[in-house]
């Protein structure tokens, strides 16, 4: 394994919690405990974060956090509030941390009040969403009355801006997490106000089971197709990398039969995963014996990082790992090289962890071109995510800091070909970013 990542926590939040199946599921079914927030609550959470993060925090960082907490406490007052509201205020308090490390997040857990309700499904929204600036757009839909490209104006009387305020604004939203963060807003049916081609539409749609949602919107399989003579492969996780390698080999063979030379690798929704057989995967694109990878690795010595061999005497120290404990170069197998093709790696703000490392290696070694938008700041820098109990919810904290060979500037890896996400274009349906890239490739190939 090249790098150990746990960014699949987004899936774990959904799949590893106790959930309920009934005809009418709503937030009264779930625990959402009342809590009275005090300054010492925030301070204890900051201290816990400081015990694990490899960030070099200063006294000013601590002062900024306390100043933000003081401002929030003026809004919160002394009344008890629901745990999902607590998480919202903690999200605001730790917003500077999330900007520095996109892995840091706090999510509620689904906990049912009636333990006898133990079926595997709840009723969730029957579509997945995209977020472009302040606009929520349907990306895929299983409801016949809701179309791809519809803009969400209201959900059961809740405005799109309110929905977004309580959650993390990923480019490709996980609808279930959004519903959880909005006070476990689940129902057997949903009242929607949409915008479609400039007109407002009111409708009611039935919810779908969590199982159906995952089967349709959480892709684990590799998707391959060919546009004329342009190959296309999409995988949303680095999972079962041996199968990904086989899919690449078959796609390249099919493109070769069509006398094509261009292949799109769609990682826009890829949140990371395993580094298993990563060296074999990179070997497909490179005929060298090795490629540079890491300059160094730092971590905060804590109970979460004892497996690196540090003693308890070192707890609390930020240390650099010796050369023998990180991978400075990835050894490759030139026999697996598939030939000289034009590779285009399509990325978004959702391209994280192992996916961002793959993207970086391709760009840094000039093995292909990166297309789309900037990766999130420090997407490459942090990892080895640990989970920590937070009230009755859970927070996720990076424990390791990486220094990779990269072209990133100030922690931001920029694409070679920028294609921005524009809400008005996505509201027309289709996939404008992919369509634009295909046009660019065709135009380039015609000139050559």
Please summarize what this structure is:
The protein has 448 residues and is α+β, with helices and mostly antiparallel strands.
Topology of helices and strands:
Blueprint (H helix, E strand, L loop, with lengths): L8 H7 L18 E2 L3 H14 L6 H18 L4 E2 H11 L1 H6 L4 E3 L15 E2 L2 E6 L2 E7 L9 E5 L2 E2 H6 L6 E2 L1 H7 L7 E8 L2 E8 L1 E2 H8 L5 E5 L2 E5 L6 H17 L4 E5 L11 H6 L6 E3 L1 E7 L17 E3 L8 E3 L10 E6 L5 H12 L4 E4 L9 E9 L2 E12 L12 E2 L4 H4 L5 H16 L1
Parallel strand pairs: 14-15, 15-20, 20-21, 21-24
Antiparallel strand pairs: 1-2, 3-23, 4-12, 5-6, 5-9, 7-8, 7-10, 10-11, 13-14, 16-19, 17-18, 17-23, 22-23
Helix pairs in contact: 2-3
Query: What CATH first level of the largest domain would be assigned?
Result: Alpha Beta
Whole-number count of domains: 3
CATH superfamily of the largest domain: 2-enoyl-CoA Hydratase, Chain A, domain 1
**Strand arrangement, largest sheet?**
13-14-15-20-21-24
Count of DSSP-assigned helices: 13
Shape: globular
